[in-house]
């Protein structure tokens, strides 16, 4: 049991660090290639690897949709078209500042999921959790605006990319929540089929963008130059993080796994400092606020669950009532 926990923690840690590192790596690649074809090269390769793995491990029958094809396409599109295309598009449009903005938005996923459940499933979060959500968004605004909201609102060039990144993150949250509809499937099967369908959708979008002249097919020299970047993105944030995170969550349970999301902005921040890129005090303060809010809410949820597990007092049992 202990070994399983250590393994699950290791997988979640590697996944989170990989996601934190992918934004600086992608930014370096965008000096040579556009984010659309970079994403297609990355997930085209990931899809092929996953397909081979699924055939080898579960056989051809694992590719049967079982009447869930439309749902698979929708959730796959949310993750591998909406998320992957828009988050890197927004990062590229923002330039160097987009690296931290994309990372911070990614770390907001647990809080965004709480808001989605509140809005669409009518499950209002506890007041303390709502405060944590608010604090995390304040932290995000520090990073995005660099402490100058007026200048940010006046610079439409930054607003549009920020919205693209935010929509992208919502797409991944929807994909993650959609996994509950496929609880009877293995993590490999859900990842493979959703990735396959979502990447096809992304391919159609990129083809249209190419036809209208927004992007152009990269040359062989460009593909070779960005080869190391693509290889990292395929192996770590693409393959290992996708499968590792799903397996890690199944071992640790979501409440424990979500703690590792804290490593996403921290990794991005450390790599940016190492690369010599300017990091403002607002980047550090914003990252700190998000980490504190995630930790505080996680501890609160743990205490709540522990309280609910306490035995009901005998007088309450006799009365047939629940403790308030």
Entry summary:
The protein has 324 residues and is an all-alpha fold. Helices cover 79% and strands 0% of the residues.
Chain-wise SSE layout:
Layout: H1 2-29, H2 35-58, H3 69-94, H4 97-107, H5 109-121, H6 127-145, H7 149-154, H8 156-178, H9 187-211, H10 220-225, H11 227-252, H12 254-257, H13 263-274, H14 281-308, H15 314-319
Helix pairs in contact: 1-4, 1-11, 1-13, 2-3, 2-9, 2-11, 3-4, 3-8, 3-9, 4-8, 4-13, 5-8, 6-14
Write up this protein:
- With 324 residues, the protein is an all-alpha fold.
- The chain has 15 helices and no strands.
- The C terminus is likely disordered.
Head-to-tail CA distance between termini = 35 Å
The helix-and-strand class reads mainly alpha
- Summarize model confidence as the mean pLDDT: 84
Q: What string gives the helices and strands in order?
A: HHHHHHHHHHHHHHH
According to DSSP, the number of beta strands is 0
Radius of gyration: 21 Å
> How many H/I helical runs?
15
Shape label: globular
* Largest β sheet strand count, sense and barrel closure: none
Low-confidence stretches: 312-324
Helix content: over 70%
Strand content: under 5%
């Amino acid at each position: 049991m202990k070994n399983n926990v250590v393994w699950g923690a290791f997988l979640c840690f590697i996944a989170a660090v990989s996601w934190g590192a992918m934004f600086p790596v992608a930014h370096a690649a965008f000096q040579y290639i556009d984010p659309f074809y970079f994403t297609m090269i990355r997930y085209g390769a990931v899809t092929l690897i996953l397909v081979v793995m699924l055939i080898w491990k579960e056989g051809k029958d694992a590719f049967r949709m079982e009447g869930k094809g439309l749902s698979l396409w929708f959730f796959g599109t949310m993750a591998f078209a909406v998320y992957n295309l828009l988050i890197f598009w927004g990062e590229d449009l923002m330039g160097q500042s987009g690296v931290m903005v994309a990372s911070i938005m990614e770390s907001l996923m647990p809080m965004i999921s709480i808001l989605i459940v509140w809005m669409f499933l009518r499950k209002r979060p506890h007041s303390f959790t709502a405060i944590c959500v608010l604090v995390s968004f304040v932290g995000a605004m520090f990073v995005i605006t660099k402490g100058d909201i007026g200048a940010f609102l006046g610079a439409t060039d930054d607003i549009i990319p920020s919205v693209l990144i935010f929509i992208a993150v919502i797409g991944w949250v929807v994909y993650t929540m959609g996994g509950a509809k496929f609880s009877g499937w293995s993590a490999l099967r859900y990842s493979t089929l959703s990735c396959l369908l979502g990447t096809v959708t992304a391919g159609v979008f990129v083809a249209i963008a190419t036809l209208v002249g927004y992007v152009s097919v990269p040359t062989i020299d460009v593909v070779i130059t960005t080869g190391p970047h693509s290889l990292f993105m395929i192996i770590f944030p693409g393959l290992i993080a996708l499968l590792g995170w799903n397996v890690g969550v199944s071992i640790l349970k979501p409440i424990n796994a979500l703690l590792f999301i804290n490593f996403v902005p921290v990794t991005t921040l450390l790599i940016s400092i190492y690369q010599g890129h300017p990091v403002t005090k607002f980047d550090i303060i914003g990252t700190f606020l998000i980490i504190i809010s995630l930790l505080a809410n996680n501890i609160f949820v743990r205490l709540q669950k522990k309280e609910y597990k306490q035995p009901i007092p005998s007088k309450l049992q006799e009365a047939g009532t629940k403790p308030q």
